[in-house]
Design brief:
By secondary structure, this protein is α+β, with helices and mostly antiparallel strands. It folds into two domains: 143 residues, Beta-Lactamase (2-Layer Sandwich); 164 residues, 2-Layer Sandwich (Alpha-Beta Plaits), CATH 3.30.70.270. The strands form two sheets. Strands 3-2-1-6-5-4 form a six-stranded antiparallel beta sheet. A hairpin with a 2-residue loop joins strand 8 and strand 9. The longest helix is centred in the N-terminal third of the chain and has 67 residues. The protein is elongated. The relative contact order is 0.07.
Length: 402
């Protein structure tokens, strides 16, 4: 045998073995690389899954707040509730250390400059500013936000000396009009889309404010008596029904005072209807200035007016009516000296629920009966329904005297 073959065969097997080892090594490296890639993909998928779960939580938090923020203006929600609802949504979604909501003030005839100011309405305890703090639009880090049309963050919110540090801020805009500003500081949850999320909430808040303001303006037109600018009869009927329901639900007191101007027909005949209209205007303004914020006052018909007293019983309502009666008797109204008593006077009847009646119709009827007795027994007096029954004058009550 050729000696070379003795060495060639083992060498060949060695080459083949080495080749196999190289192939296996490459496959092992490829498998390791694939394993690393899959591990990284799994890590990436885990991160994406956590991100999606976080975004899902954000979406659920937003959806939880949307019904409150987007509730129709005819709901039970009041205008002053909107900043609080918005504040709760911001805290829930962003978890900031400090949230401040500034609203644009509305101008008045004697203070037109108010619309150039923002007022802090809602903030966490211990915030940089206290509620009620005023900021001029365009001035300072907060005021400059009102001049923007989009959110601002980071270097865009450089605070001056004596100003709060703000991480994210946004104007509240609806129909190209700025209604307020929102600021957030030290947010526990930070996302790449925070600015977009804040913009959405700010826009919803501005929409809610605008809707309520417009509805308030419409209600002001439809609910007020055009001559006296107090509630008209239909508005009084609605509010009386609501007050009775609330009193029943909360087991609270409720009384009404129905009163009118004594000898108003004589006043019109002596002084003319224009003077009578002016008297009604002055009279309504005079009474409106002497009642509580929670009391409801309006023109019931002609010279007849109605006062609804939530949380007051018959005795308290009678005392309040007596105070109004005596104040009117002391007031020098136009041409009051030409009246039969030498001054403008009123007569009124008080009724309480549920002592005198349960429903609004029965309650008004009880008050009207007491009013009729007051007029039949000399006028210029306030009489409760119970006192009217004691007078025992049902036989002479055929209706209201003029």
């Amino acid at each position: 045998m050729n000696p070379l073959l003795l060495y060639a065969v083992p060498a060949l097997w060695l080459v083949i073995l080495l080749g196999l080892m190289i192939v296996l090594w490459r496959r092992a490296r490829a498998a390791e690389a694939e394993s690393t890639r899959l591990s990284e993909s799994l890590d990436s998928l885990t991160v994406q899954n956590e991100l999606l779960q976080s975004e899902q939580v954000d979406l659920l938090e937003l959806l939880r707040e949307l019904p409150q923020l987007t509730a129709g203006p005819d709901s039970d929600r009041r205008l002053r509730d909107i900043p609080d609802i918005l504040h709760r949504a911001l805290v829930r979604i962003f978890q900031p250390r400090e949230t401040m909501i500034f609203l644009r003030r509305r101008s008045t005839s004697d203070q037109p400059e108010r619309s150039s100011q923002l007022i802090l309405t809602t903030a966490q305890p211990g915030s940089f500013y206290e509620p009620g703090h005023l900021v001029e639009i365009g001035q300072g880090v907060v005021g400059r936000l009102a001049d923007r049309s989009e959110p601002a963050a980071g270097a865009e919110l450089e605070a001056g000396e004596g100003e709060p540090r703000i991480d994210l801020g946004c104007p509240m805009i609806h129909c190209d009009e700025v209604h307020g500003v929102i600021t957030l500081t030290d947010m526990a949850r930070q996302r790449s889309y925070d600015s977009d999320l804040l913009w959405l909430l700010a826009s919803l808040g501005a929409y809610a404010l605008t809707s309520h303001l417009k509805l308030s303006q419409v209600r002001t037109i439809t609910d007020l008596d055009p001559l006296t600018q107090v509630y008209n009869r239909s508005a009084l009927a609605l509010r009386l029904a609501q007050a009775i329901l609330r009193a029943e639900t909360e087991d609270a007191k409720l009384s009404v005072l129905l009163f009118d101007i004594d000898h108003f027909k004589v006043y019109n005949e002596c002084n003319g209807h224009l003077a009578g209209d002016e008297l009604l205007r002055q009279f309504a303004r005079f009474v409106a200035e002497r009642i509580r914020a929670e009391d409801i006052f309006g023109r019931f018909s002609g010279e007849e007016f109605l006062l609804i007293f939530p949380n007051r019983g018959a005795a308290e309502a009678e005392a309040a009516g007596e105070n109004i009666r005596s104040a009117i008797a002391r007031r020098d109204f136009l041409f009051g000296d030409r009246q039969p008593k030498g001054r403008i006077t009123i007569s009124g009847g008080v009724a309480a629920a549920p002592e005198n009646a349960a429903g609004s119709t029965e309650l008004l009827r009880a008050a009207a009966t007491a009013l009729a007795v007051a007029k039949e027994t000399g006028r210029n007096r306030i009489l409760s329904s119970a006192a009217a029954a004691d007078e025992d004058l049902a036989s002479v009550i055929d209706g209201n005297s003029a």
